[in-house]
Amino acid sequence: MANEIPNVWPEDITLDIVTPQAILRIQAENLRTQTKGLLHARVTRTESDREALYELDVIAPVLGSTHRVLNARHGKDVVYPVIVDAECFRREHKEADFQAIQTVLLGRKPRHPGAASTQDEFLKVIETVLGSNEVRSLLQSLIARSNEAQASEPTSIGEDQEPPTP
User: Fold this and answer.
1) Would you kindly state where each structural domain of the chain is located, as residue ranges?
2) For residue 72, which of 18, 108, 116, 166 sits 20 to 30 Å off, Cα-Cα?
3) Is 116 in contact with 81 (CB distance < 8 Å)?
4) What is the DSSP letter of 148?
């Protein structure tokens, strides 16, 4: 056929796409595994009439503390695009304010640094957040404090130890 019409659908449309919630849950399990259970992460989902919101919290069970790492939101019925809010983007956003103003004046809408239109973009955004100085410092601090708290806990009496005398 002389006038063959090409396929113009994007090549990255595949069948192995998962939701942002699934990606965050996998990362939560990865943290638990990587820290041998010293730190946990929890993904919480809330929903309104228009959108779904996910919160990723890091938990230090030994310390009894919970810290928010990021929020992600998307439409109720459409999971991409997803917008991620995290401390590293708020810092980055402040630094980019002047550039954003210039961009608006030039007639282009600035893109939120945590915006992801596809699964691959979302993975890159999550990698940026989890690898940020803010999150790395938080994790290091929680691990150090948890290790210290565990070291100061009384140990149980082993078979080769005698109980204290009254």
Assistant:
1) 20-142
2) 108
3) yes
4) H
